[in-house]
Amino acid sequence: MCITAFDAVSGPRYTAFSELLPLLAIGTSPFLKVKEIRQAIDTSSLTITNSTTLSSPFATLSFSASATFEVRSPSRIQVTFKEGTFQPPQIKSSVDLPENVNVFGQQINISPVQQSLGPLQDAVASIGRVISGQPPLKVPIPGDRTSSWLLTTYLDEDIRISRGDGGLFVLVKEGSPLLAQ
User: Hey, is 63 helix, strand or coil?
Assistant: First the structure.
């Protein structure tokens, strides 16, 4: 197995990583969706970037964690996280609420709320103009959680299954026909 086969990955399709589970649970709410979770491995610079994009009716939020890695064997790497980056929110030009929301198994029609959002949309647009163009917020990752390891247990042209001290990860490569399923 060789880690270089997965330079960019969309995923995870499955994870047992406890710190990611709350994020995935948030994505089941009607007003906040996980748009993308991705891992990019750059073998030339020995860096990894884990990134997440969330989408709400008002804005798209993106954040990432960057790390360096050291190859310990053909299937194992040692990872050291360096910093987290929070991109300025991308404010949407209009509020995009669903017509109905499922609350505890009951469909609630919220289209009347959509019709009364004119003043709120103006405020959101004003905020968007203020924060657009702001630089991302970069935060060093401190403490003993910066070091981790990752062991690739299965790898083909579409899937990578890895285990680490944080859990189990099943990732599908960007562009794979498996993503269309």
Answer: strand
Q: What is the pLDDT of residues 86-110, one digit of tens each?
A: 999 888 777 767 777 777 778 878 7
Q: Which two tokens stand for residue 10?
A: 């969309």
Where along the chain do its domains lie?
A: 3-87+136-180
**pLDDT for 123-145, tens place per residue?**
777 777 777 778 999 999 887 76
d(CA 6, CA 93): 36
Q: Name the DSSP class of 19.
A: T
Tokens describing residue 82: 């360096």
Phi-psi region of 116 (alpha: psi -120 to 50; beta: other; left: phi over 0): alpha
CA–CA gap between residue 116 and residue 21 (Å, rounded): 35
Taking CB atoms within 8 Å and a gap of at least 24, the contacts of 114-121 are 120/95, 121/94, 121/95
**In the block, which residue shows the tokens 């008002």?**
58
pLDDT category of residue 114 using cuts at 50, 70 and 90: low
* Contact between 176 and 163 (Cβ < 8 Å): no
Q: Which CATH architecture has domain 3-87+136-180?
A: Beta Barrel (2.40)
